[in-house]
């Protein structure tokens, strides 16, 4: 009788020892996996997945236990309401951190839910400045925001384009206005002069009146903060008004759609900016591209390197804090400073990436070419 | 000076399109006292139908001359819009002819939503490039003033169409019947006028004008999409009220005045207010003018001359 008890005790002890050896830690990944930008969504998820698999292969020990990371991939359909639903689902499944979401529009409402539950999140692709300005402690992003983008745009206009006089137009949306304001600040800081500040709206098609006025001001560069649906027709009308000034716009106009809508009116005097670096310019870009291709049998779209770095930042913070509990590893996450695929990953006070990269593109040979 | 003249050109072109669309609003209002809010969406249907026809023609006869292609696409777009205008009146508005005035107004808003949603289902949410079959390469009649052939076409075509419409209303038997129906459709019916037919015809003619305006608008800007009729529709309605709703000459005048006010407003508002207001007040400027006109002359610029409204 005694023997059995001892045997049981030993068995029990052995079992708990085995449990102590391996601990499963769930991380969430959210992006639109269906719909028109599902290819970008899957790309983000793959980036995070690669990071998790790398960490598991290394065999990380946290708090004396061997850790196995598991990635829970969710689909937010790029829809704000679905975004909050899946955010709640992840919180209920007690994930220790979230990589996502993809769009600013879904990330901002979802961030509230993660904040309430105390789950840290890192978006690899949402650029709206509001995200990190809500006062939430656990919100980060690994990509440059629109303020940083405006700064780069301003420097580009005053520097490489050597513009002394600049005309700025925005579409009065929070994106367009924000980007135009930041660009204006940066142009002024670099010694440029704003000779015209004009406005339109995101439903307008006729810009002749404001463009005529701008023509009278004879600027070296025209900047437009807004989307491709306005920027395309705007280029056409500039041409019809006999203006061939350099035209610069932000990521809203940095699309193939823009090229289609501008038709014959687009030329090599058109420039645009995008948050992030092209893959070949990232420190770990080439290696990442090859490993990604070998693992998923497809090419990197845009943001997967940022998703990889986001997941890595989380895992490294857990190691540094020697805990997977959000409250414990969050201070370490704030202090992140390591060389990732996309460059140095370090956050500022509110959770934005420090020195976020922005790339300028020029229209060349029928498409946007990185400069 | 060339900036001033350029703004004049800009204003005239936009104003001509507004005027053409405003005629449709004002005709229907003149005869029924109904503001057909779906009228702006006929502009959109006209443009997108023409686009669809052009795509088809480019597929089957790529060598076709631009003028022939434009004419053929208009010959498809105009009847489609006419049919739509007729259907609208027959199904939605005729039953409400004796209902309180609010009922047809709200129905009109509903029809507008219906048309936009249907167009979104058929043609998708994306902006489409509209082939600019009439050249958009600018010429300079005066140094520094750029005018494109399409813009000249728009102004001339609008003027001809408007003149033709005035002749139709004032000189023909049909026009007399329209004026009689506008004045009092019961008495007109007693005099042997088929008022149902006249009202239907008014919608059909208005729809044809909207189709032409749609094709011109899309050709000028080179784009088309399912929501493109909303803003020009709203502006044309404003133009009709500005000129005196129910009055044909007023709609034209209102359209051109509104176009010019917008253009000069955006161009000079900053100087005029010493930098206090800027071009984001472009639309507000147009509506201030409208408000002022209505305060001092509630019937609009040319008044509502009941005797010849149609």
TrEMBL record, chain A:
Q: Give the signal peptide range.
A: 1-20
| Family that this chain belongs to | Belongs to the leucine-binding protein family.
Pfam family membership, one:
Peripla_BP_6
Family matches, as PANTHER family: AMINO ACID BINDING PROTEIN, LEU/ILE/VAL-BINDING ABC TRANSPORTER SUBUNIT
Q: Which domain of life is it from?
A: Bacteria
Question: What is the protein named?
Answer: ABC transporter substrate-binding protein
Locate the transmembrane regions by residue number. Answer: none
Alphabetic keyword roster: Amino-acid transport, Signal, Transport
Residue span, Leucine-binding protein domain: 25-364
Tell me the organism. Aromatoleum diolicum
UniProtKB/TrEMBL annotation, chain B:
Q: Does Membrane appear among the keywords? A: yes
State if Membrane is listed as a keyword. yes
Cross-referenced CDD domains: TM_PBP1_LivH_like
Keywords for this entry?
A: Amino-acid transport, Cell inner membrane, Cell membrane, Membrane, Transmembrane, Transmembrane helix, Transport
Sections of the chain in a coiled coil: none
Q: What subcellular compartments does it reside in?
A: Cell membrane
Pfam families xrefs = BPD_transp_2
Annotated membrane topology is: Multi-pass membrane protein
**Transmembrane annotation, as ranges:** 12-35, 42-61, 67-86, 102-124, 144-169, 198-217, 237-261, 273-296
Entry similarity comment: Belongs to the binding-protein-dependent transport system permease family. LivHM subfamily.
Q: What is this protein called?
A: Branched-chain amino acid ABC transporter permease
* Higher taxonomy: Bacteria, Pseudomonadati, Pseudomonadota, Betaproteobacteria, Rhodocyclales
